[in-house]
């Protein structure tokens, strides 16, 4: 009987890395995840990337290797579209934040960003330019947005253009760093699933301002927005105004992605007015 592509990739990975047992953990639109064992003692993870996501996930996996375990999960090896990496079995940073510990969560994110952004050897090739990543926002038509949100779209798009027109440092970025892409481990909080982007370091924390999932009441709270911005600016040294500008721009970009897929943009529309107000006051 012919094997499916995932069965073939899994079989080859088990042999290549001398693995003794595999347990399926999750399937997403972009990959399959397995927990694997070596000699019945040590756990690790296998991520098998689906062909439809090969380009973006490939950028992310190369960036994850480049981090060398500093602030992120460790990649032990990779071959084609299969990644052999550290197993993280803790909960996400979203859990304590949803339980009311938002300041602690923001401090943890600042610590991770500092680790991810430390100077390293030459960056991986073929990272996605940040401006290219915003193509969906700039291509979005106002009429695709709810009537009451079109002014929000216009303002956020204008802020994004202004940010791109003002030169900044350009560094490798995780590109999707938020609470539920950060897992607990015996080494502390570690980032997973980078997108592999190249651009303004202040953009890195933009997704934080519309997250974690299932916590819109926290993300949209003006007091939480202000405190998050204060903590991140103080600990990372980035301009508060620029960070909040990117937060506005990213919220609109996220909405544009969801609108293109026919999804609701309830969270983005709850956060964006207060993010814009905070930007105006910064």
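-> sequence recovered:
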């Amino acid at each position: 009987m012919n094997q499916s592509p995932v069965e073939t990739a899994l079989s080859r990975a088990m042999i290549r890395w001398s693995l003794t047992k595999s347990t399926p953990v999750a399937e997403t639109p972009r990959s399959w995840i397995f927990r694997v064992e070596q000699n019945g003692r040590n756990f690790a993870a296998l991520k098998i990337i689906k062909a439809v996501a090969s380009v973006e996930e490939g950028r992310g996996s190369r960036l994850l290797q480049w981090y060398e375990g500093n602030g992120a999960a460790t990649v032990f090896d990779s071959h084609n579209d299969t990644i052999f990496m550290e197993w993280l079995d803790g909960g996400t940073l979203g859990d304590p934040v949803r339980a009311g510990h938002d300041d602690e969560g923001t401090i943890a994110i600042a610590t991770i960003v500092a680790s991810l952004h430390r100077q390293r050897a030459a960056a991986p090739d073929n990272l996605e330019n940040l401006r290219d990543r915003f193509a969906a926002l700039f291509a979005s038509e106002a009429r695709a947005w709810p009537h009451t949100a079109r002014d929000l779209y216009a303002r956020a798009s204008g802020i994004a253009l202004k940010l791109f027109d003002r030169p900044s440092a350009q560094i490798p970025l995780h590109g999707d760093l938020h609470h539920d892409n950060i897992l607990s481990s015996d080494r502390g909080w570690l980032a997973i699933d980078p997108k592999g982007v190249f651009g303004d370091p202040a953009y890195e924390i933009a997704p934080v301002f519309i997250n974690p999932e299932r916590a819109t009441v926290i993300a949209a709270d003006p007091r939480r927005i202000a405190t998050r911005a204060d903590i991140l600016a103080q600990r990372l040294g980035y301009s508060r105004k620029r960070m909040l500008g990117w937060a506005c721009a990213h919220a609109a970009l996220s909405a544009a992605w969801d609108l293109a897929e026919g999804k609701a943009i309830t969270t983005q529309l709850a956060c964006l007015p207060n993010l814009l107000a905070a930007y105006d006051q910064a």
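The radius of gyration is 19 Å.
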